[in-house]
Every structure is written in C-alpha cells, then in structure tokens.
Design brief:
The chain is built from 9 helices and no strands. It has helices spanning about 10-20, 30-40, 45-55, 55-60, 65-80, 90-100, 105-110, 115, 125-135. It is globular and about 40 Å long. The N and C termini lie far apart (about 40 Å). The mean pLDDT is about 80.
C-alpha cells in the first residue's frame, strides 16, 4: 500500500489518531472507537493499520489560507453527516480539527448549521462557502 493511494478519509483517521495521542498514548477505548468510525466511512482494517503506521505523514497539514481551511472543514462535515447520524465523537473531532485549523468556536458553530438548514443531498461546496463567508 502506498501513501499516494490515500484520500481525505485516511487523513481524517490519521488526524484523529494523532489528536488522541497528544497525551502520549491512544487509549484502547479511543482506538477502538476510531477504528469503528473508520469502518463507518469505508476505511478497511488493512488501511487502518497502514494509517496507524503512517499517521504523522497522513494527518492533515495545517491549511494556510481561509479557503483551504473552509474546504478542509467541508470535507470533515461531509464525512460526519454522510450516514445521516451524528454521534458525539464526530462532533468532538469536528471541533478539535477546527481548533487545530485556528477557527473560532462561533464560526465552527455557524458554518456547521448549514447541515441542519438544508437537506444533506442539497449541500455542496458553494453553499458551504457562502455560509463560511457570512460567518467571517
């Protein structure tokens, strides 16, 4: 398996693992929950093992520009809302990644509202970017 074959799903899992290891360890409960989340978004156990090995190289780089941050957040929200359910861990991950990106809580809440105002199939990057700009 090669690094270039990985996409934003793998980057998200790598980032969550890296965040969970901030205190030096990933607790078994965190690891099993992240594995469950990975399976929910279509990351196989084999891919998960590779992500663990390469999490430092796969995790999200900190986007520099405002639009890059918005696109990163949009991808995160697409994953969270893809199954039609929202669990607390997913929202925690959203806020943690938002914080890493340097986005304030008010803006995170404001742009997250787009997912509750429109049917999820109607939300695209253009609608999200409009909310992003309004929240600035």
């Amino acid at each position: 398996m090669e690094l270039q074959n990985f996409d934003h799903r793998h980057q998200l899992i790598a980032t969550l693992m890296k965040l969970s290891a901030v205190d030096g360890n990933v607790a078994p409960s965190e690891s099993s929950y992240i594995l469950h989340f990975a399976e929910e978004i279509g990351v196989s156990k084999e891919e998960f093992g590779f992500v663990l090995k390469w999490k430092d190289k796969l995790s999200y780089p900190k986007p520099e520009g405002d639009e890059e941050k918005a696109r990163c957040l949009f991808q995160m929200l697409k994953l969270i809302f893809s199954d039609g359910k929202i669990v607390s861990f997913e929202l925690t991950a959203y806020y943690k990644i938002g914080k890493i990106l340097g986005i304030g809580m008010d803006k995170l809440e404001s742009v997250g509202e787009v997912w509750f105002r429109f049917p999820k199939d109607d939300i695209n990057e253009a609608i999200f970017m409009d909310y992003w700009k309004q929240a600035s």
